[in-house]
Amino acid sequence: MRGKKLDDLGVSAFCESMAMMVQSGIQTDEAIALLQSDRTHSGGMLEQGLARMKEQVDQGCGLAEAMKASGIFPDYALQMVEAGESSGRLEDILFRLARYYADQKTISEKLRSAVTYPAAMLVLIIAVLAVMLVMVLPAFTEVYNNLTGSLAASGYSYVRWAYGFCWFALALMLVLALGLVTGLLLWNSGKREKAIAVLRKNRLCASILESMGMFRFTSALATFLSSGDMQDEAVLKSLPMTDCAPVEEKLKRCVLRMEEGHSIAQAAYDEELFEPVYGRMLLAGERSGNLEHVLERLTGLLEENCGNQVERLVGIVDPLLSGVLMFTVGLSLLSVMLPLIGMMNAIA
């Protein structure tokens, strides 16, 4: 159990449940006991984690320490809960964590759908091409050989073009499928850096990765600031949450500017951390004393931007793969049908 973590939806549900109980004035030990009694199945990851947490809080430990002992929560959630307890804003932090992990789940599902559809299309294209090469083209070839004696000796030898084109398209689709499978294996095996390095070579994929990094940063920054951390401390704690090298480089330059006396809003605007309109929003929010509110608004906008970019990627890949399928099948059928049309014209 210690090697596994709750998924984003599980963390979000736990944090929201705990937040509502804390809001109602229920003590931590009672809240955990209530969550245990609500579980209909025993032996699962969360059930075992709750049991371990109950043991810890009964011994006088705080919520953050109990969550850490359970071994099922991500480090970010542990840091946030610890900050919420120390600042006396546990309820607010738990609600923020619930929204954060719910947003993470939404983005992950959109990314998964963006990969699933192209994968299904690749399988379909490979299957159609295999049928063309194994069944359809050989059947036409046999008919023409019987009629003309030999395709090579006949005037219809360009039927072989259909074979060549189908073999080329099949090889290309197999290479793409192999690349997709390799990328998924690297992503799920903990070697995401290699897969991300390849994705960054595509402008649209690189933009999606940076948008996700900025989303994670702004969400973490808003949470740390709301817990009472100073701006420089909040930025340094939020920096590792980006999981995106280009974003981290920009943030490091912002940290250097902050060390010179600039605020986070001014440093972000000068280093073009956000788009100009977002940078101005951040400056206005800081000057009006509503920095946390603006950061929450930016987090929502960045999440929406991530979703739009993923949908745009799917919108490009979808017609492209459909076009490859229709073009390949259409050209192959045309290549084998033209000799038949020529024969019919000759007979007429």
Task: Describe it.
With 348 residues, the protein is an all-alpha fold. The protein folds into two domains: 8-73, no CATH class; 102-348, Receptor-associated Protein. 81% of the residues lie in helices and 0% in strands. The protein has 14 helices and no strands. It has helices spanning 8-23, 28-38, 45-58, 63-70, 75-87, 90-148, 160-188, 192-199, 203-226, 231-238, 245-259, 264-270, 276-287, 291-347. α5 (75-87) packs antiparallel against α6 (90-148). The longest helix has 59 residues, at 90-148. It is elongated and about 95 Å long. It starts with 7 loop residues before the first helix and ends with a helix. The mean pLDDT is 79.
Which structural traits does this protein have?
2 domains, 348 residues, mainly alpha, elongated, Receptor-associated Protein
What's the topology here?
Blueprint (H helix, E strand, L loop, with lengths): L7 H16 L4 H11 L6 H14 L4 H8 L4 H13 L2 H59 L11 H29 L3 H8 L3 H24 L4 H8 L6 H15 L4 H7 L5 H12 L3 H57 L1
Helix pairs in contact: 1-2, 1-6, 2-3, 3-4, 4-5, 5-6, 6-7, 6-9, 6-14, 7-8, 7-14, 9-10, 9-14, 11-12, 12-13, 13-14
SSE ordering: HHHHHHHHHHHHHH
What distance separates the N and C termini? 78 Å
What is the H level of CATH, i.e. the homologous superfamily of the largest domain?
Type II secretion system (T2SS), domain F
Return the average pLDDT rounded to an integer: 79
**What name is given to the CATH topology of the largest domain?**
Receptor-associated Protein
By helix and strand content, what is the structural category?
Answer: mainly alpha
Helix content: over 70%
CATH architecture title of the largest domain: Up-down Bundle
Q: Got a strand count?
A: 0
Task: Determine and state the CATH class of the largest domain.
Answer: Mainly Alpha
The oligomeric state is single chain
Principal-axes shape call: elongated
- Number of helices, counting only DSSP H or I runs of 4 residues or more: 14
The parts where pLDDT drops under 50 for at least 5 residues are none
Strand content: under 5%
Domain module count: 2
Main β sheet profile: none
- Which value, in Å, is the CA radius of gyration? 29 Å
